[in-house]
Design goal:
- By secondary structure, this protein is α+β, with helices and mostly antiparallel strands.
- The protein has three domains: about 60 residues, Structural Genomics Hypothetical 15.5 Kd Protein In mrcA-pckA Intergenic Region, Chain A; about 90 residues, Pseudouridine synthase I, catalytic domain, N-terminal subdomain (Alpha-Beta Plaits, 2-Layer Sandwich); about 70 residues, Pseudouridine synthase (2-Layer Sandwich), CATH 3.30.2350.
- About 20% of the residues lie in helices and about 25% in strands.
- The strands form four sheets. Strands 6, 7, 8, 9, 12, 13, 14, 15 and 16 form a nine-stranded mixed β-sheet that branches. Strands 3-2-5 form a three-stranded antiparallel β-sheet. A two-stranded antiparallel ribbon has the order 1-4.
- Helix 1 crosses helix 2.
Length: about 240
Amino acid sequence: MAEPIRLSKLMSERGLCSRREADVFIERGWVRVNGVVVDTLGTKVDPSSVVTLDQGARESQTRQVTILLNKPVGYVSGQPEKDYKPAVVLVVPTTRYAGDRSPQKFEPAHLRGLAPAGRLDIDSQGLLVFTQDGRIAKHLIGADSEIEKEYLVRVAGSLDERNLARLNHGLTLDGAKLKPAKVSWQNQDQLRFILKEGKKRQIRRMCEMVGLKVLGLKRVRIGKVMLGDLPEGQWRYLREDERF
């Protein structure tokens, strides 16, 4: 028989919600295990248990928002650092993209629990996702995530075919081999990187290893969601018809 597991962890592993959300749902009596309400935090259950969410939990999830921001250089993705502001300070009514097609009206409650699903370095720009939905966060940045992230990278230096092949598959960072990437020339001084992982400053470090200097880096796609014509420093809501 398998070892019992914390209910909140099991819910997160199954993609029902984040562990933090699971604790809230459990406390509110919105979680059933094999048809029985469980409302005690820390409860351990059999990993094969049938876990269901009550209507209250499902309604809570439908109210959660996901926001797409075109982060400028000079803002950090998460917690404030030194004299740098977190990018979430740009999510205010006045910076909402005029072309946002979502019918969602901005509410201060949309900032509560809003967290970045992935990082974008302070000296990089482009698509940054903020979400209240733990399912989306896990999908984008969970340990087993296979979501592609696409970047346009302006570089200085020369790159021969051998080193281009190494960028695609053949480099090691922090003692571990990198997953295969898709790297190709976009134009004379710009490379296109498509990655399925996001180690700290990964692209800059990869370029350094083959003798290139990064002059500019912009993320233009996460999964099926494109940055598109979203202006720098502005944001919009993820629409109901969009999926990563």
